[in-house]
Amino acid sequence: MKKKLVSTLLCAAMAVSLLAGCGGSADTSATTDTTAESTDTADTSAEETEAAEETASTGEGKVYYLNFKPEQADAWTALAAKYTEQTGVPVDVQTAASGTYESTLKSEIAKTDAPTLFQVNGPVGLASWNDYCLDLSDTDVYKELKSDDFALKDGDAVKGIAYVVETYGIIYNADILNTYFGKDYAVVKSVDEINSFDKLKAVADSIQENKDDLGVKGAFTSAGMDSSSDWRFKTHLANLPIYYEYKEDGISSTPAIKGTYLDNYKAIWDLYITDATCDPAVLSSKTGEDATAEFALGEAVFYQNGTWAYGDLSTNGMSDDSLGMLPIYIGVEGEENQGLCTGSENYWCVNKNASEADIQATLDFLKWVVTSDEGCTALSQEMGFVCPFKAFDNYPATNPLINIANDYVSAGKNSVAWTFTTMPSEEWKNGVGSALLEYAQGTGDWDGVVTAFVDGWASEYAAANN
């Protein structure tokens, strides 16, 4: 992600006024069926009807979107229903359960009524699904992109289009931190002083030591390692040592990761599991919902997550003024100039094996989503996305965490690229996740994590690339 382009997108999102991540079984029971039924169009306004007619499919096509983001399932259902109401075109949205997207897609794509619209997470995901991906070079949705940096290509063919730019880091409770800063035992007096791993650790250790006085259960929320939460650590946290290794070596991918910064990975993981709301031995049973609840209830000060978490935190009663976000510091040289982790792993792909009518219906739906008032409003306001399409300059997102991301860019901090899209496979992630859990609960050692990270990378890369 080019820093200048990230800045342009984030600034555009903030210009007028004043987001939602990742995350079982592989069968169809793992999906949330959110079919948008055709409804009475009698109350549809003349303007809506006219706009819909301009983009409606001329055939008998239908749309089946396999959605990756559980936190936006209801919003996609509502948006699909609006489109069906205006056009009569059936739009079926199903959402894979957290952590099961790949297995669900494999199951669904083999069916007669396979998804016409699905997503991949980047180059590695595209390698698995390239044979199913329509070339979008001549489509309206591709022409609406602000930059080719958000097109996923195979040679000259456009096989995927990023539809959201997101940011993650360490979200903090500003109210509790401000109380902490006023205590005699506080090791810093302002959040601005927390600009390195050493400072973050000193603050977290101090909070953990004085948790009873502060009325919290721990400095960090529980680092749950079930499928609803483990992606935060086996993928998003693991991004940091990969990013810094790539940066040092001047590369953008590798068939064999060296693990140069795995000691740094260990340091931040140790901090997460020791200065926390729970004993590391119980992390296998802790969920993403547990972490969200702990943070929203003021039981923890720090919570690793991204802009997509805003909706859940707001729903659980947190005010915008209570939210802040720090970079994930891991103790590398020069990290005082580090910003937040910004990028995308959400690329729309259209199933080229669908019928011609269904392909056209899907392309029409995508054009409507990224150009219509209904679509832009839903993605920017209801789903809280920063979207890389031209029309979204007029639809700023309302998520306050985007303001913070924009502030880091404006201050000249170096955004951390999403290098985790180069991870060789889901199996590699699962291996790292299992090793992290075993280390945390005392049934394994850190050498197991190193083996899963380094040896697992080489073997999984070789298997994927023959």
Q: On the 0-100 scale, what is the average pLDDT?
A: 88
From the alpha carbons, calculate the radius of gyration and give it in angstroms.
22 Å
- CATH topology heading of the largest domain: D-Maltodextrin-Binding Protein, domain 2
What ranges have pLDDT less than 50 throughout 5 or more consecutive residues? 1-8, 11-58
Helix-and-strand structural type = alpha+beta
Q: State the helical fraction.
A: 40-55%
Please report which band the strand proportion falls in: under 5%, 5-15%, 15-25%, 25-35%, 35-45% or over 45%.
5-15%
CATH class of the largest domain: Alpha Beta
Query: Helix count?
Result: 19
Q: What's the name of the CATH homologous superfamily of the largest domain? A: Periplasmic binding protein-like II
| Domain module count | 2
- Described by the principal axes of the CA atoms, the overall outline is globular
Main beta sheet, described? Answer: 6 strands, mixed
> How widely separated are the two ends?
28 Å
CATH architecture of the largest domain: 3-Layer(aba) Sandwich
Q: What is the β-strand count?
A: 13
